Amino acid sequence: WYSHPATTSERSYSGSDDGDWQNKCLPIGNGYMGAMLAGEICHEKIQFNEKTLWTGGPSKLRPDYNGGNFEGRAEKLKEVQALLLAKQIDEATEMAREHLVGDYNGYGAYQNFGWVTVSHEFEGGEFSEEKLSDYVRELDLNTATAATSFSYDGVGYMREYFMSYPHNVMAVKYSSTDKNKITLFVEGVSAHELAESSVRNDVIVLKGALTDNQLRYEAQIKIISIGGTISAKSAGVAVSGADEVVILMSAATDFKNEYPAYRSGIDTSITVSKNIKNAVDAGFEKLLRNHISDYQKIFSRVSFNVCQEVSGDATDVLLSKYKNSASLAELEVLLFHYGRYLTIASSRNGSLPSNLQGVWNETNNPPWGCDYHLNINLQMNYWPVYVTNMAECATPLIDYVESLRIPGRVTAKEYMGIISDEANPENGFTAHTQNTPFGWTCPGWSFEWGWSPAAVPWLLQNVWDFYRFSMDKTVLREKIYPMMKEQCKFWQQYLLLDKNNSMYYSAPAYSPEHGPITLGNTYEHTLVKQLLMDSIVAADILGVDDADRAQWERLAACIETVSIGEEGQIKEWFDEITIRSMPQSELKHRHLSHLLGLFPGDSISIQTPELLKAAVVSLNDRGDISTGWGIVHRINMWARVQDGERTHALIRQLISTGIHENLFDTHPPFQIDGNFGYTSGVAEMLFQSNLGYIHILPSLPKVWEKGSVSGLVARGNFEIGMTWDNCMVNSVTVLSNVGGDCVLKFKNISKLPKVCYNGLEVPTNVIDGETISFQTVAGCVYEVR
Ligand code: FUC
Q: Could you tell me if 713 and 386 are in contact, meaning their C-beta atoms sit under 8 angstroms apart?
């Protein structure tokens, strides 16, 4: 909460952010739409987005739109590969730079939709600061509602805001302690040219089609007054002397994530009018009740505290104290919950996945198009979903990866010569560093950052985790495994055999976003090998595809991944000798691409002590100073190293340098991946479940010596709760959602605990002095003391 509005000056509609928008405004959202609240007193401007409002893609202006792919580059790829095998690196590099790139035209960007503006007139003439007191602007993470309240001239004013997922509307209520005090003028301002801007009685309609791609869009703003008078003006709706005013807003486009047209054919007016009508019928109070129960169904599953002192300070005060002094656990805990809030607000079933800014964007020319970046960013957005018990929020990502399959086959054909046809319809798809919702799977327009076929194996790790956490075989069989299998097929054809050593290479390979172009590298190979290994497990679980499975095993055995260099480091490139020995490699680079086996992968761990030691050398070499998501990746990695103090030092680093007043993470500029990755990192500090057992409190810093958590999820679908004191575990509860063996490993215990169900001791199997296992029955809660 804050004791002042987010803005100090009049914000313009130009879409050029003056900083306040990303630093200070408070976000609400429902996956489909987002809004940013500044809490202005007299002239409120609520900026809003609809997640599918994008330029780019199919358009009358681009009749040949083809997902950015250039035709017939597969021959060039072969030449580049031959040059790499012949160790003619410069020639290969030159050719790759020239030919292994995609188009620019049609990429587009995520757009601002516009603003709902409310001019509030107070009685007694000119607004006077002297009559104002008790101003509070707040966002309640427990209910996903925001509010602004203040007193003016002895009258209390209250504004409440939320974005309902069940009704797909934004609802705002203006009220006051006295009757007849609400006099205001509501307008709709579009960030784009409008075909129609009309005021029909009490509804403002903003309707049009983007010039760039003719995507139709529409927002309706309905004003309901209780008491007073309401009248339509040409520019907006005026309310005078009301007791209360409710504003409902819903927006839509005719986008549909379906190749090749990417249009639904549905009239936006029908969609939006229906949403508004349903919301009006429900009324504000019912909308609010439904919204809170829908939101809390997910949010309330998890509780977490470290017995932190709660100061009652405003959030900006807390942040500046944090920057200037010792760590304030209050803020560290709040930021954990915020990542869950932001996930629920920006990724719900039916919506597109959260993009670089979740769903919030004020400009029509946002950094990186506010797109889907696949060399860490989109993946990081989804790191906390399963472990912090929000699996349904992952559906947009899984559906999105599914939607890349058809356009991704075009890219596989044009650039790799891998052809899907009637006889073999699912023969392999690919995508590269950056993506739009219009099937843009081609490489970027510059090879160096733009070529990255390992992007899909990396995304599929997130998708595979849906199964590992839920154990839902139906989803595995019907949705997840088919994508993994097709992706394995792709790599079976794409990987290049070096006859000299009978090993397979991803070529040309590039480690984000520095160093040379090479024959394979640690980044790509780690991801591809993890895909093959995961797919083998998946095929085993489903009892299918023995022959494919055997081939994946043979192939995986011929892919070199992590190795240790002369300085004891994990080598990022196979020819690397000492850390700085490779051309174009940057000191302290933000990406930790060669360490993906440590996090989010599983191939570097406490079970591989030599590799772990080398990973620590590499982590130290990269250093702790980085950009928002870069620090956050380090947090997750040091949690896996199981060094709680170092992990916490990085948390201090993040909050002191990478967090805005509204607690958005900044790259800079604002990029939401760091928020999500932070929440995941905290969960990794509390327990880890990637190695076949649940490791309790593996990375707890001293400053969190006492605390409790509940509702986190471990692989195998166990819901974990625990309490600890003096950095030692007191009790653990395990809710077994689907049954199966539960394996628990503890750090810092003097003797192994007992497991009870309903007060009675359950037989346990002692694996070693730190590890026990016990059988569970679905639906039962076990207490470990
Ligand atoms: C990756 C990063 C950049 C930026 C971009 C959106 O490519 O290397 O720093 O975060 O994504």
A: yes
Question: Greatest CA separation found in the chain?
Answer: 88
Please report the pLDDT score of residue 749 as a whole number: 82
Q: Is the minimum distance from the CB of 434 to ligand 1 under 6 angstroms?
A: no
Q: From the CA of 629, give the closest atom in ligand 1.
A: 10
Percentage of the chain beyond pLDDT 70 is: 98
Helix axes 455-470, 481-494, angle to 10 degrees: 150
pLDDT at 8: 66
Spacing, Cα 356 to ligand 1 middle (Å): 9
Query: Rounded to the nearest whole angstrom, what is the distance from the C-alpha of residue 208 to the centroid of ligand 1?
Result: 32
For ligand 1, the distance from its centroid to the CA atom of residue 718, given in whole angstroms, is 34
Tell me which residue of 656, 645, 625, 628 sits closest to 332, measured CA to CA: 656
Distance 161 CA to ligand 1 centre (A): 33
What pLDDT is stored for residue 15 in this prediction? 54
**Amino acid making up residue 10:** E
DSSP assignment letter at 477: I
CA distances from 367 to 14, 37, 176, 700, 749 (A): 16, 21, 40, 36, 49
Alpha-carbon Rg for the chain, nearest whole angstrom, is 27
pTM: 0.98
Sequence-distant (6+) residues with CB within 8 A of 550 are none
N-terminal to C-terminal alpha carbon distance within the chain:
39
Over the stretch 397-437, which tens digit does the pLDDT of each residue have? Answer: 999 999 999 999 999 999 999 999 999 999 999 999 999 99
Residue 573 pLDDT greater than 90, yes or no: yes
pLDDT confidence tier of residue 197, bands split at 50, 70 and 90? confident
Helix, strand, coil content of the chain in percent (nearest 5): 35, 25, 40
Q: How many angstroms separate the alpha carbon of residue 347 from the centre of ligand 1?
A: 21
Given this model, what pLDDT does residue 18 score?
Answer: 65
Closest CA to 377 of 391, 392, 397, 363: 397
Residue 149's beta-bridge partner residues? 136, 158
Q: What is the pLDDT of residues 200-230, one digit of tens each?
A: 999 999 999 999 999 999 999 999 999 999 9
Q: Determine if ligand 1 sits within 6 Å of the CB of residue 432.
A: no
pLDDT band at 10 (very low <50, low <70, confident <90, very high): low
* SS3 letters across 43-78: EEEEEEEECCCECCCCECCECCCCCCCCCCCHHHHH
Between helices 284-299 and 329-346, what is the axis angle to 10°?
Answer: 120
673 CA from centroid of ligand 1 (Å): 10
Residues in the chain: 785
Q: How many helices (H) and strands (E) does the chain have?
A: 21, 31
Tell me how crowded residue 738 is: count the other CB atoms within 10 A of its CB. 15
Rounded Cα–Cα distance for residues 37 and 44 (Å): 8
Tell me the C-alpha distance between 51 and 31, whole Å. Answer: 8
Q: Which residues pair with 208 in a beta bridge?
A: 217
The pLDDT tens digits of the residues spanning 456-486 come to: 999 999 999 999 999 999 999 999 999 999 9
667 lines ligand 1 (CB under 6 A): yes
Q: How many CA atoms lie within 13 A of 442 on its CB side?
A: 26
Count of Cβ atoms closer than 10 Å to residue 761 Cβ: 10
In short, whether 668's Cβ falls inside 6 Å of ligand 1 is no
> Which pairs count as long-range contacts for 748-756, CB under 8 Å and 24+ apart, including other chains?
748/697, 753/784, 753/785, 754/784, 754/785, 755/782, 755/783, 755/784, 756/782, 756/783, 756/784, 756/785
| 456, 487 Cβ separation under 8 angstroms | yes
Q: Does the beta carbon of 377 sit less than 6 angstroms from any atom of ligand 1?
A: yes
3-state secondary structure of 506: coil
**Mean pLDDT to the nearest integer, 136-157:** 98
